[in-house]
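Lab notebook, bench 4. The sequencing result for the construct came back, and we need a structural model before the next group meeting so we can plan mutations. Quick request posted to the team channel:

Model the 3D structure of this chain.
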Amino acid sequence: MTVSHPQPPLPFRPAPPADIPLLLPLIRSAYRGLSSRKGWTTEAHLVADQRIDEAGLLAKITHPDGVVLLVTDDSALDTDTDASTPPLSCCEVIRKPDGKTAYFGLFAVDPEKQAGGVGRRVLGYAEEFARREWGVGRIEM
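Done. Here's the predicted structure in token form:
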């Protein structure tokens, strides 16, 4: 018999522009470079450029009908040495003009933490966020 253990809640929050230096390495590591090859989201074999730059990420963070959600890895925090909690995952959720649909994108999970259920939980939270905040009944990628 398999016993499932409840997972502690993930700490989600909207990312402000000040989080760009935390988010860029996470996004780039999930999609490009050597570390991305550990996870399933790698695009390193398809393209060599950066996944996103500061200006592109700032545009997503400040989008009037969207949010970039940041998930931190509180378990990795060493309160004696770390000033900030490392990012575990992020995604963007944008309300589409029809008001009934939201777009889910910019999805990144730390390659070292992939295949542990984090992605499923982030997608679930993004869906709930879109329903709760905007009354959206559908989310698409």
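The radius of gyration is 16 Å.
Will bring this to the meeting.
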